[in-house]
Design brief:
three-stranded antiparallel β-sheet; mainly alpha; Alpha-Beta Plaits; two-stranded parallel sheet; 2 domains
Length: 310
């Protein structure tokens, strides 16, 4: 996320404001969608869920907050005014959601598959995929000696809790998150743990739908989690991670799987092909004292003379 344009101490908390350039009224539904994503992303930091209306009134710096008796003041900010499209895309990326252009591309791909008669869903079911992610998170924890390093603890615990919201049969998600935090992320503030646990409980109660992106849960890409947790291609390969994989390692695995598939179907590598079809370079007919046409006639008939051993 980019830094806020203005940060105001209201006397009872902080107001983070991202200024945007003039935007048409028709963009209000998109603004509301980006605002929901921003608040959900910031819930673990104590964001007020009620502050999502487009007519929000802010206290004027220099005035007194009558509820706390404190002076309202500006404490920082970049002063930058952002283009709404660019800012909303960064909000969606930070919250693990697709950008507007990515959604449009998915719509195009969906229409193409329907026209081709291939409406079958691709990839693993979400519950199965997030179970594999949960397994990878445990492998990463063990690789760090059982305790997640400082700086990665909040992210690791958030991803762990997100996995629980996709896996059925877990009754006390908040209790599981707290117990996991004691073991894997010691030193993490209780307020952060509480926010992550409660958010996971709320997400888990949402109604599941057939649409992955509309069920209200977080749907992180494995590459996004790998980036947030500092997982390198070498680390993913060494640990044998299944889902938390950088894009570079995922492409390598796909290429390797494709080579194996071709090999299983009888395809030869270039080296094997040249070894079996090197007649044009070695010209064996010259060694036999016959012409090229005669050589292939005898070869097809299985009548080539066996070369004498030297």
């Amino acid at each position: 996320m980019p830094q806020p344009s203005i940060v105001i101490h209201t006397g009872r908390g902080l107001a983070a404001i991202w200024l945007i350039k003039e935007t048409p009224v028709s963009a209000l539904p998109r603004w509301q969608g980006a605002m929901r994503a921003l608040i959900e992303f910031s819930t673990s930091y104590g964001a007020d869920k009620a502050c999502r209306d487009a007519t929000r009134i802010f206290r004027i710096p220099g005035t007194i907050n009558e509820k706390s008796g404190r002076v309202v003041n500006v404490s920082g900010g970049t002063g930058v005014r952002y283009r709404f499209d660019a800012l909303s895309d960064r909000v969606y990326r930070a919250s693990g959601r697709p950008t507007r252009s990515e959604l449009e591309e998915r719509k195009k791909q969906k229409k193409t598959r329907k026209r081709a008669g291939t409406a079958m869903p691709r990839g693993l079911p979400q519950a199965q995929r997030f179970q594999l992610i949960l397994d990878d998170l445990e492998v990463i924890r063990n690789a760090h000696g059982g305790v997640i390093p400082t700086g990665l603890r909040n992210s690791w615990l958030h991803f762990h809790a997100t996995c629980l919201t996709h896996i059925g049969g877990i009754r006390d998600i908040e209790g599981v998150v707290r117990k996991t935090a004691e073991m894997a992320t010691p030193g993490l503030k209780q307020g952060e743990i509480k926010a992550i646990a409660r958010q996971a409980e709320e997400k888990a109660r949402l109604v599941r739908t057939t649409s992955v992106w509309n069920d209200g849960r977080y749907h992180y890409k494995g590459a996004t989690i790998a980036e947030r947790l500092g997982v390198t291609p070498e680390m993913a390969c060494t640990l044998g991670l299944q889902q938390i994989i950088p894009d570079q390692e995922r492409k390598r695995r796909r290429a390797e799987a494709e080579r194996q598939r071709r090999s299983d179907n009888g395809a030869m590598s270039r080296e094997e092909y040249l070894a079996k079809n090197n007649a044009s370079r070695e010209k064996p007919w010259e060694k036999l004292g016959i012409g090229r046409t005669k050589f292939y006639e005898l070869k097809r008939a299985g009548m080539l003379p066996v070369p004498e051993a030297v």
